[in-house]
Design a protein that fits this description.
single chain; 8-stranded mixed sheet; two-stranded antiparallel sheet; 4 helices; 12 strands; about 20% helix; about 25% strand; 5-amino-6-(5-phosphoribosylamino)uracil reductase activity; RibDG_C
Length: about 200
């Protein structure tokens, strides 16, 4: 069974977006390098991001870290709010072969009927479905409210943070409304990219 990794880009004060869901300069490092990322999940080929017209282009250091991470993902787990914000990437997972959406509402009627998206009511059921679909590949959980709930349920194995050098002051928290205490192990990965610091921590059991 693959590991469950909670991930997002985050400001140094712990926010993944401002209160209006704007990411500001958080993702600038995705487009400021000279190394193109490729998508290896369903559909294959280069993953073309609409911003900037050239897809993800990272520094070589960041690309050497991010590409294997993307390649290892089998399933993405996200909340309904994020799904609505990006319209489910128009039915094309940016990594992996499936997306599991935690939602009390069903898939929008007529929305990309053949897309490999699964709508599940509840975080425990979502992780069970994701692990069933992923096999021994990684289940990537988007940080935020749903990610915080999955952490609180004891279902996260690792926390991965791409820390951008910006202070937001307020906004959407990496761990959502999680207000407990969870010890992490010392980081087993610390990689300094261009305008980003890649960190990975195992969750202490």
């Amino acid at each position: 069974m693959g590991v469950v990794i909670m991930h997002n880009v985050v400001s140094v004060d712990g926010f993944i977006a401002d209160k209006n869901d704007g990411v500001g300069p958080l993702h600038d490092w995705y487009f400021s390098g000279d190394t193109q990322l490729t998508k290896t999940g369903a559909g294959g080929g280069d993953y073309d991001h609409s911003q900037g017209g050239g897809g993800f282009k990272l520094s070589r250091v960041s690309a050497a870290y991010v590409q294997p991470v993307w390649d290892s993902i089998g399933v993405i787990v996200m909340g309904r709010h994020q799904f609505d914000l990006v319209n489910g990437w128009e039915g094309q997972p940016p990594a992996g072969d499936h997306v599991v959406v935690v939602s009390h509402r069903p898939k929008p009627e007529g929305w990309h009927p053949g897309a490999p998206y699964h709508f599940v009511d509840g975080v425990k059921a979502a992780i069970e479905k994701a692990q069933e679909l992923a096999g021994d590949r990684v289940v990537a959980v988007s940080a935020g409210e749903v990610g915080g709930q999955i952490l609180a349920a004891g279902l996260v194995d690792e926390v991965a943070m791409d820390v951008a050098p910006v202070v937001f002051g307020s906004g959407k928290r990496f761990f959502g409304s999680f207000d407990g205490q969870q010890l992490l192990e010392d980081p087993h990965m610390v990689i300094q990219g261009n305008r980003v610091l890649h960190l990975r921590f195992k969750v202490r059991r």
